[in-house]
Design a protein that fits this description.
CATH architecture of the largest domain: 2-Layer Sandwich
CATH class of the largest domain: Alpha Beta
Helix content: 40-55%
Largest sheet: 4 strands, antiparallel
Order of helices and strands: HHHHEEHEEHEEHEEHEEH
Strand order of the largest sheet: 3-1-2-9
CATH topology of the largest domain: Alpha-Beta Plaits
Radius of gyration: 18 Å
Number of domains: 3
């Protein structure tokens, strides 16, 4: 899990200093639709929806757009006959790196064409369903930030039916990601919140069962360009890959050498 988490954390830091690499309005709005579709359309009782709304507000999306997205997810928006589908796509990057893409689209043909173009331009291949998903396991992940007492975290994690956790130092700040079976995500989120941990995000995430170590600079550059190209597509909600590389190589190819080391 460490390699996956490192990539997620570096991306999070990168987005803080480079807003152009963040999610588009369309992606953030669709994240709200998905969250409202799979839970109650009330952020007070749906943490994933609350997280999606907070990200949308931070990006400057107007409240009217946010309310419209919630209504679409809940099926109560009268002036919309658009039908969205959640689809998972799979493929390979340079060196056999496995890549999973979660998309939310109203036009499969457009999405497939955009994905295939991104893969082809960056040395990868869009594959068939099932070609790499067997290398991943879907987990519930809860992120907490702030001062963390590890003994208290261990106790709360066990009570919330967590499988494991990882602690991080981000500059002077502390953070942790707590992993659980996807059916226990709500229970874990509520338990950590009840134990006064600062829960900042809760999501379902694909975790690679094995990692491919990337040491070659050209391969690293190709893979990161592919990941960023895929993430820039409006229909794409999440991208997960099974690679690992050093902090230095990652930051060099992200072009963000000023980012804190993780």
């Amino acid at each position: 899990m460490a390699g996956h988490s490192k990539w997620a954390n570096i991306k999070r830091q990168k987005e803080r200093v480079d807003a152009k690499k963040g999610k588009t309005f369309a992606q953030l709005s669709r994240a709200i639709i998905v969250a409202a579709k799979h839970g109650i359309p009330d952020p007070a009782g749906n943490f994933q929806l609350r997280t999606a709304i907070e990200k949308a507000k931070a990006a400057g999306i107007p409240n009217d757009n946010i309310e419209r997205a919630i209504a679409k997810g809940a099926g109560t928006y009268e002036n919309d006959d658009t039908i969205y589908e959640e689809i998972r796509y799979e493929g390979y990057g340079v060196g056999g790196v496995a890549i999973l893409i979660e998309a939310f689209t109203d036009n499969r043909n457009r999405t497939v064409a955009d994905l295939r173009s991104a893969f082809n331009k960056n040395g990868g291949n869009l594959g068939e369903t099932g070609c790499v998903s067997w290398m991943f396991e879907q987990k519930g992940v809860v992120r907490i930030e702030g001062k963390i007492d590890e003994n208290a975290l261990l106790e709360a994690s066990m009570e919330g039916e967590a499988d494991s956790y990882e602690l991080y130092e981000e500059g002077e700040d502390q953070a942790a990601e707590v992993f659980t079976d996807m059916t226990h995500l709500d229970t874990l989120t509520e338990t950590l919140s009840h134990k006064n941990f600062n829960v900042t995000e809760a999501e379902l995430r694909w975790i690679p069962n094995n990692l491919i170590d990337i040491e070659d600079d050209e391969q690293a550059k190709s893979i990161i360009k592919l990941i960023e190209a895929l993430e820039s597509l409006d229909d794409v909600q999440n991208v997960t890959a099974n690679f690992e590389m050093s902090d230095e190589l990652m930051l060099l190819n992200l072009g963000t050498s000023s980012l804190p080391k993780i």
